[in-house]
Amino acid sequence: MRRIILGLVAAALVVLGSATTAMAETGSKSDPSKDAAARIDLTKLTVKNGDKRVTFKVKVRDLRQRGSFSFHYWGGTQGTPPARSAVVSVRLKDGKPKASYFECNTEECPKEPCQGLRATWDQEKNIVTASLPQRCYPRPAAHPDRPAPAVGRFFAYGSMDAIFDEMPGQPLRLDRG
Question: Which residues constitute the signal peptide according to the record (predicted)?
């Protein structure tokens, strides 16, 4: 009987252990309100670094219909910027959110396609979101099938004309789920 119970406990731990590794790591950081123009004043960034998708969400003090919000995804823990990174830019165009995806190296960031890229712009809740599949993250040319980075660093900017706001301090560092 004792062996059966120990076997069930061990099986439960294996199942629970594998379930926790499949969960996305989520993190957030705040920025003081009123340190930038209200329409682009980022007050909170939340990122969910999932196994299949990365989701960004920024809270903006007084979101309107103008401005642009950029979400940055740096792979790994070193390099500023790293050898490969991704940027998603979100703005309103004809009243609808328009997301653009850019693949970056240390010198340039050309616009590239990213099937499955999504964005929202919610003025009532003062929230802008962007979500992209991990498969869009740029891979080394020599290893195009390599998985997305195990660790990501994430940050955001808001801009309108010559005014901008960013989340202060170090980027959020999150393991991929």
Answer: 1-24
